[in-house]
């Protein structure tokens, strides 16, 4: 049986995934946690598979924990399971924090298929993160540069600080944000920010360390 750790902050989803894994018969849950950092502390070389949520209890980053676990135990297979459609989550998972990534809105049958493929050594990642509604438009209508600007804006950087980071003008930062507001039919930038956070397009509050 595959020695498995499940990390899921939402207790309802945690129970659902645990029941599906146990019903399958091929998995033995050796740990179920809401906090990724707690799972990290309890992981050892006997663990073969980790299903890792991204935004876990206490805002602890599942991606950060997964990266450290992979360094300590390179043979463990880590499948990131998330509802966050933030493109940065997919990018970080691809660059060494995980073996595969699965979005929670796909269904359990597909999840089990991704688990089997991951255990067989395959890396299973979507080509792009799903697009979400942003009032009158979809998130994929915003350019990667606009999403980067929005991310830094949500984190509280000034226009000049964003401009310096991205090598553009302060005027260019303002234009990008105003264009997003116009495309989405938002009343103002605050409404744009609120929708991006509510629809999980942006996650900016995860803690990398305890």
From TrEMBL:
GO terms for biological process: phosphorelay signal transduction system; regulation of DNA-templated transcription. Residues 3-119 form the Response regulatory domain. The keyword Transcription applies. The modification 4-aspartylphosphate is found at residue 53. InterPro entries: CheY-like_superfamily, Sig_transdc_resp-reg_C-effctor, Sig_transdc_resp-reg_receiver, Tscrpt_reg_LuxR_C, WalR-like, WH-like_DNA-bd_sf. GO terms for molecular function: DNA binding. The keyword Transcription regulation applies. Keywords: DNA-binding, Phosphoprotein, Transcription, Transcription regulation. Pfam families: GerE (PF00196), Response_reg (PF00072). Residues 135-200 form the HTH luxR-type domain. May play the central regulatory role in sporulation. It may be an element of the effector pathway responsible for the activation of sporulation genes in response to nutritional stress. Spo0A may act in concert with spo0H (a sigma factor) to control the expression of some genes that are critical to the sporulation process. PANTHER family: TWO-COMPONENT RESPONSE REGULATOR (PTHR43214:SF44). This is Stage 0 sporulation protein A homolog.
